[in-house]
Amino acid sequence: MLAIKNLSKTFYGQPVLDNISLSIGAGEVVGLIGRSGAGKSTLARCLTGLETAESGKVFLDHHAVVPGQGCGRQHIQYLWQDPRQSLSPYLTAENAVLETLNGFKIGPVATRRDRAQQLLASLDLTMDVCARRPHALSGGAMPARCTCPRSVCRTENAHIG
After folding, report:
1. Residue 134 · residue 108 · CB < 8 Å
2. What is the pTM (predicted TM-score) of this model?
């Protein structure tokens, strides 16, 4: 479960998030709807540590976390609206997933490549596609299907996007 308690954020003295509280249960999918500038992306960026809230707390499974650090960094993942922003131009799709597995030390070293291939195969990506770099991937769906496995390497994640 992800819980947000009294989160506030201002830009240039103007409140963007004002004392926001929200609870999202395990397995629950929540969409935030609002006009442009209402703070939807700012909330997502605060939850993932890309922005810093002035006040408030974030809890994951009833434990306080610091967004973008430690447990919060590992378990709360941002899914970019433009997935090409999160893919390194130097890494293949497979190596991008492997980078996440290695960076967070997920699973035994000997099984990480197999895990990366399983995650990509679960999205019907062929080994040929997995061996390509982002510029060689076609269509809007390909980058998205290559970034999703990076965020779901751990099953207990909260996915923010």
Report:
1. no
2. 0.67
